Amino acid sequence: MPPERLWTIADVAGHLGVSERTVRTWQRKYGLPHLRIGGTIRFRPEEIRAWVDRHEAHPTAGAELSQLARRNAS
Fold it and tell me: Structure pTM?
């Protein structure tokens, strides 16, 4: 089975249900794993899923991510 294609910022935003701006903020400030290829940023789907799992490992993680998304959307 071939590996999944790399995701764009729009793909990650759609998968996580947040804005592209929030994805960029999480990438810069909170360690959302990414690759820089030339002038573009791409994401490995399995790394995004693992990052989300790590941030949901404790009861307040979902609330923290939601708060971050709301703060960055304003």
Answer: 0.72
**Domain that residue 42 falls in:** 9-73
How buried is residue 39: exposed, middle or buried, by Cβ count under 10 Å (0-12/13-18/19+)? exposed
Q: How many CB atoms lie under 10 A from the CB of residue 61?
A: 14
Domains in the chain, number: 1
Residues 11-45: pLDDT tens digits? 999 999 999 999 999 999 999 999 999 999 999 99
Domain annotation covers residue 1 = no
d(CA 54, CA 4): 21
Whether 34 contacts 43, CB under 8 Å? yes
Nearest to 19 by CA among 69, 63, 62, 71: 69
